[in-house]
Amino acid sequence: GGMSSLAVPSLAVPGAVPRGSRTRRSSSVSAPRLATDKRGASVLPSASADDDGSSSAASATATAKKKDRFITGRPDEQFSSEAAEERQELFNDIAPMYDQLNDLLSLGLHRVWKRAAVKWTGVGPGDAAIDVCCGSGDIAVRLADAVGPAGRVVGLDFARAQLEVAAGKESQHPNFKTKLAPVEWVQGDALALPYGDGEFDGATIGYGLRNVSDIPLALRELARVLKPGGKAAVVDFNNATDPNLRALQGFMLDNVVVPVADLNGVAAEYRYLKPSIERYPQGPDLVDLAVEAGFCDATFYELAPGNLMGCLVCTK
Fold it and tell me: Quick one: CA dihedral 88, 261, 78, 80, positive or negative?
């Protein structure tokens, strides 16, 4: 295995347990080349508060309609374009309360896991980094801190409402404009990143790979935009190989996550979690997919507490 090159001595991630690691035998194999597709990418202008209240009536109607056709519940339908469009609408709808819910549901631990993902990329001052499926911008802002004002950070997501929350979060940061790289917030597609080959030193996906309609393609795109030697860290729920852990996770989702979301009026949005975790590849399979996508080596770590989360760390 590829453990030795991936051991990050400066990184103390308590309770990160390697669960599968692989190095590509022939390092001469280059990543599959994909044509850069510019479609669907638009850079978000700086955050404005003008349009925050106006869409609430429209989104209430959308929510009413959505309850009738909520197809993200069936794992076999997750890869359809209808399901992908529905997830886009869903993440736009939950943007205003996404952070508070994540804090509540993970007991604040999602912040620890996101910090670990940034450390695993190994990016430092002056580097270029991209956070794909950036959501409300937690990881992108952490990357901006890691690379500093001389660096470059892109936060890309398909849900515009999430990007607006993210831009607001960036502008509220105490080090905004002094110690952070300015973040380019871009509405775009994880399956067709609007960037050239080898543009970035590090990349992250936090709670996003599980939601794309083509996981191998998303990993190939991630490998493509990284420089040789660049690292990607992908943190998400762990589709555990241990049946007891899977049962515990299912229990938590049914009895904690969905009821808490229900109290906030967004149960439908969180009900998709369980089927989405069930169809997400398990750690050892993610490692194989990463190597097939063009990474030199990959290791999957299960994260404490309870190994409910996992992080795939791969080097191009």
Answer: negative
Q: Give tens-digit pLDDT for 93-152.
A: 766 666 777 777 666 777 888 999 999 999 999 999 999 999 999 999 999 999 999 999
Beta-carbon contacts of 262 under 8 Å, excluding residues fewer than 6 positions away, are none
Q: CA-CA distances (angstroms) from residue 90 to 129, 164, 177?
A: 27, 15, 32
Query: Which of 216, 166, 220, 212 has the alpha carbon at shortest distance from 189?
Result: 212
Six token digits for residue 254: 């049914």
Other C-beta atoms within 10 Å of 63: how many? Answer: 16
Q: Whole-angstrom Cα distance, residue 192 to residue 217?
A: 9
Please count the CA atoms within 13 angstroms of the CA of 301 that sit on its side-chain side.
24
User: Taking the model in full, what pTM does it have?
Assistant: 0.75
Whole-angstrom Cα Rg for the chain:
19
Q: What would the DSSP string read from start to end of 106-120?
A: TTTHHHHHHHHHHHH
128 neighbors 201 (Cβ within 8 angstroms) = yes
Cα–Cα dist 134/120, whole Å: 17
- End-to-end alpha carbon distance in the chain: 15
Q: What is the DSSP letter of 31?
A: P
Give 154's strand partners: 130, 184
Q: In whole angstroms, give the CA distance from residue 20 to residue 16.
A: 12
